[in-house]
Amino acid sequence: MPLPNFVAALSVRKVTASDLITGAYNPVLFVDVRSSEYHTTDQIGSSIWIPLEEITDGNGAERLQALAQAYSQAHQAEPTLILYCTICPGAIQAYRHLQATGLKLAVLSGGLTAWRQAIPIHQEANVLTHAIATTRKFLEQASYNTPSEWHFQSYPG
Fold it and tell me: Number of C-alpha atoms within 13 angstroms, CB side, residue 121?
């Protein structure tokens, strides 16, 4: 890891698969910051896909702020956005770009690679039943006009 990335990684709030399994961070929304070719091959539960390029150009930050605000209104709780990529560097870059937004952020330590080592895909639904179900229900209530323009409907519970 190049020195600037190493130094940046030291100031990033990281969480592990174990932290998430034990419910240390609830509620959570998983945010996949990888490119589409990686996102379509594997992802965590009902992850929200916002590629790093959208975050660095500012559009992704606006989308995430709208998501977090809509989620908070619907659930009366601010979610922690768990940013992840394959290993970690992309998520760290996304974290650095999003720090000034005031969102509750964390990077999944070791990325999807570490996640899959801890939680094989066939066990994921059982391990994160509540987090995945809550995210899926929330996203089903969102209607998409275009990938960058989201509209949210509140729903009970």
Answer: 7
